[in-house]
Amino acid sequence: MIKKASTKTQQIVIYLMDLIRSKKIPTNKIMPSEHALMLRFDCSRSAVVSAYHRLEALGAVYSISKRGHFVAENFHNLIKPISYILGSDEHKSTLNKNLDREWLQRMNIIFEDDSSYEKVYIKDGKVICYADCFVLKKYFDNDFNINDSLINQLVSRNGITNIVYHLKYEDVNKFGYEKLVVLYVFGYDFDSISFAAKYVIHPDNFDIKHQEFSLV
Q: Are 29 and 40 contacting, i.e. CB atoms less than 8 angstroms apart?
């Protein structure tokens, strides 16, 4: 069972994120007022302000002085499944408890308890990416499907608040190349790291875009 939000601020963040992801509040439309949230969650103004600060840090909302908080225009495009980024039309996954964990240790990624599987991405009948995926055990329940999008499933479980993309040129011996740029992706929930994945992508399909937001 997934642990429920343990603070008022986390409860408010989850509630507001649901409003944004479900598009119940459209882009550039005003979010619930601080006063309304104080009444709904029976909490202090500081808890509400802290929740909105978290959402601003994620790029989910922006604020206008004396007017309120609004849904950010580009938020729905911030976190995409890797299959979408790669343009793959098929993928196959296999549970594997013996995946190489050396890179996790090298990057100081420590799971309390995890499940692991390997995934192959296919486009036009050809393999374009090999992936090793590690997921925090509490999210790997009976409804978790290793053949579905890892990102989408964690988002639906409130298992991702932010994601880190790390690219490194390494020895891989894949696709006929000794060295390739490897994509490492790891994400966090409210408490700790929730998943980590390593992607070795065919160079013809390596097209990663990056976007950042100013909080000013």
A: no
Q: 147 and 63, same structural domain? A: no
Number of domains in the chain: 2
Q: Which residues pair with 192 in a beta bridge?
A: none
Same domain, 89 and 169: yes
Q: What is the pLDDT of residues 133-166, one digit of tens each?
A: 999 999 988 789 998 888 878 877 888 888 888 9
Q: How confident is the model at residue 197 (pLDDT cuts 50, 70, 90)?
A: very high
| Distance from C-alpha of 216 to C-alpha of 201, rounded to nearest angstrom | 35
Give CB contacts under 8 A, 24+ apart, made by 18-22: 20/60, 20/61, 20/71, 20/75, 21/76, 21/155
Task: Give strand pairing partners of 117.
Answer: 95, 133
The parent domain of residue 147 ranges over: 82-205
Q: How many CB atoms lie within 10 A of CB 75?
A: 19
- Residue 1, domain member (yes or no): no
- pTM, two decimals, is 0.64
